[in-house]
């Protein structure tokens, strides 16, 4: 007797991140190898012909776990009784567009999607916001869905986390699974703070502090941080398109960890509600913290010692988020 299928929504489903993502979900890489799936694909009306092509390809993959694929441009269809929502679709920043204009457009989108979650989704739904500005979009969606617990909302900083992890691994000449507990603090923007003060590297079987393993504090406090902060822009410059393969992989990692939990003694980064945190981060924000996950419930890793260098960077990205939030809430109340 196979399990009941779960309903998984992906928005922006005709876009390039989704194109890299949908196969992994449908194959069982995210929700488990014996979990049947109904995939619901939402996009805007002009993208429906493209979406039909994506549906054909999913059918042609002949994947045993994929029970049904539902393409739609209607929120009442898309959000109905869903177990998981991966909100990839957002208004991208166009040439010459002010950040404020971008925020305004996205507040409208995520207000609508939050309201649809509130009205149609299961109250247990887990919501991952990927579309940028992800932290603030996530906050708006949550505020627009008061009947769904705030803890069910998170935004993607796992891509930044994976980038940081990989940079450390390459520097130490080890594979990335030998590095653990890097942290991304704050906003998924260039103010984010990639922190390796608590990271460990496995060198020839011995667990070593990252700062000891790398032995180059100048790099760790300089180029390492800016490389991770600017990596998205570097990919766009090279490919003329934004990170899709790596973003999709990070989405899979994030959702799989929510579903199955993190390993003992390890933590990952995700943007979550800051309320009740022990790091003096303003409460009403979605801020990226180190978290551990058990029984589909995340908990911020408390009590990590924070030095002055880290403190300044954690506060700077919090300040940006407060400003974004206040601007967005102005638009929301209009």
TrEMBL record:
<feature type="binding site">
    <location>
        <begin position="130"/>
        <end position="132"/>
    </location>
    <ligand>
        <name>NAD(+)</name>
    </ligand>
</feature>
<keyword id="KW-0816">Tricarboxylic acid cycle</keyword>
<protein>
    <recommendedName>
        <fullName>Malate dehydrogenase</fullName>
        <ecNumber>1.1.1.37</ecNumber>
    </recommendedName>
</protein>
<dbReference type="GO" id="GO:0006099">
    <property type="term" value="P:tricarboxylic acid cycle"/>
</dbReference>
<comment type="similarity">
    <text>Belongs to the LDH/MDH superfamily. MDH type 2 family.</text>
</comment>
<dbReference type="GO" id="GO:0006108">
    <property type="term" value="P:malate metabolic process"/>
</dbReference>
<dbReference type="Pfam" id="PF00056">
    <property type="entry name" value="Ldh_1_N"/>
</dbReference>
<dbReference type="InterPro" id="IPR001236">
    <property type="entry name" value="Lactate/malate_DH_N"/>
</dbReference>
<feature type="binding site">
    <location>
        <position position="106"/>
    </location>
    <ligand>
        <name>NAD(+)</name>
    </ligand>
</feature>
<dbReference type="InterPro" id="IPR015955">
    <property type="entry name" value="Lactate_DH/Glyco_Ohase_4_C"/>
</dbReference>
<dbReference type="GO" id="GO:0030060">
    <property type="term" value="F:L-malate dehydrogenase (NAD+) activity"/>
</dbReference>
<dbReference type="InterPro" id="IPR011274">
    <property type="entry name" value="Malate_DH_NAD-dep_euk"/>
</dbReference>
<dbReference type="InterPro" id="IPR022383">
    <property type="entry name" value="Lactate/malate_DH_C"/>
</dbReference>
<feature type="binding site">
    <location>
        <position position="99"/>
    </location>
    <ligand>
        <name>substrate</name>
    </ligand>
</feature>
<feature type="active site" description="Proton acceptor">
    <location>
        <position position="188"/>
    </location>
</feature>
<dbReference type="InterPro" id="IPR036291">
    <property type="entry name" value="NAD(P)-bd_dom_sf"/>
</dbReference>
<feature type="binding site">
    <location>
        <position position="43"/>
    </location>
    <ligand>
        <name>NAD(+)</name>
    </ligand>
</feature>
<dbReference type="Pfam" id="PF02866">
    <property type="entry name" value="Ldh_1_C"/>
</dbReference>
<comment type="function">
    <text>Catalyzes the reduction of aromatic alpha-keto acids in the presence of NADH. Plays essential roles in the malate-aspartate shuttle and the tricarboxylic acid cycle, important in mitochondrial NADH supply for oxidative phosphorylation. Catalyzes the reduction of 2-oxoglutarate to 2-hydroxyglutarate, leading to elevated reactive oxygen species (ROS).</text>
</comment>
<feature type="binding site">
    <location>
        <position position="163"/>
    </location>
    <ligand>
        <name>substrate</name>
    </ligand>
</feature>
<dbReference type="InterPro" id="IPR001557">
    <property type="entry name" value="L-lactate/malate_DH"/>
</dbReference>
<feature type="binding site">
    <location>
        <position position="132"/>
    </location>
    <ligand>
        <name>substrate</name>
    </ligand>
</feature>
<dbReference type="InterPro" id="IPR001252">
    <property type="entry name" value="Malate_DH_AS"/>
</dbReference>
<keyword id="KW-0560">Oxidoreductase</keyword>
<feature type="binding site">
    <location>
        <position position="93"/>
    </location>
    <ligand>
        <name>substrate</name>
    </ligand>
</feature>
<dbReference type="InterPro" id="IPR010945">
    <property type="entry name" value="Malate_DH_type2"/>
</dbReference>
<feature type="domain" description="Lactate/malate dehydrogenase C-terminal">
    <location>
        <begin position="157"/>
        <end position="331"/>
    </location>
</feature>
<keyword id="KW-0520">NAD</keyword>
<feature type="domain" description="Lactate/malate dehydrogenase N-terminal">
    <location>
        <begin position="7"/>
        <end position="153"/>
    </location>
</feature>
């Amino acid at each position: 007797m196979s399990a009941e299928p779960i309903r998984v929504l992906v928005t922006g489903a005709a876009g390039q991140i989704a194109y890299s993502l949908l196969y992994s979900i449908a194959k069982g890489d995210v929700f488990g190898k014996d979990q049947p799936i109904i995939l619901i694909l939402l996009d805007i009306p002009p993208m429906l012909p493209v979406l039909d092509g994506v549906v054909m390809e999913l059918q042609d993959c002949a994947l045993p776990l994929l029970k049904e694929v539902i393409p739609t441009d209607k929120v009442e269809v898309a959000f109905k009784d869903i177990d998981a929502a991966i909100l990839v679709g957002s208004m991208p920043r166009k040439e010459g567009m002010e950040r404020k204009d971008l925020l305004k457009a996205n507040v409208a989108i995520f207000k609508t999607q939050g309201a649809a979650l509130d009205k149609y989704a299961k109250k247990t739904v887990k919501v991952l916001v990927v579309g940028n500005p992800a932290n603030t979009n996530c906050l708006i969606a949550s505020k627009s869905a008061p009947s769904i617990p705030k803890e069910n909302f998170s935004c993607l900083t796992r891509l930044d986390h994976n980038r940081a992890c990989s940079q450390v691994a390459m520097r130490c000449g080890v594979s990335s699974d030998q590095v653990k507990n890097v942290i991304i603090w704050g906003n998924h923007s260039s103010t984010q703070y990639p922190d390796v003060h608590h990271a460990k590297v496995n060198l020839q079987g011995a667990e070593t502090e990252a700062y000891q393993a790398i032995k180059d504090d100048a790099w760790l406090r300089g180029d390492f941080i800016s490389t991770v902060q600017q990596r998205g822009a570097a990919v766009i410059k090279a490919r003329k398109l934004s990170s899709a393969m790596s973003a999709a992989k990070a989405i899979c990692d994030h959702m799989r960890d929510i579903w199955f939990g993190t390993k003992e003694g390890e933590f990952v980064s995700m943007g979550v509600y800051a309320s009740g945190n022990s790091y003096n981060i303003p409460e009403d924000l979605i801020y990226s913290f180190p978290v551990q996950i058990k029984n589909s419930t995340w908990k911020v890793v408390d009590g990590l010692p924070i030095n002055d260098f880290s403190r300044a960077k954690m506060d700077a990205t919090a300040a940006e988020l407060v400003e974004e939030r206040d601007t967005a809430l102005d638009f929301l109340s209009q």
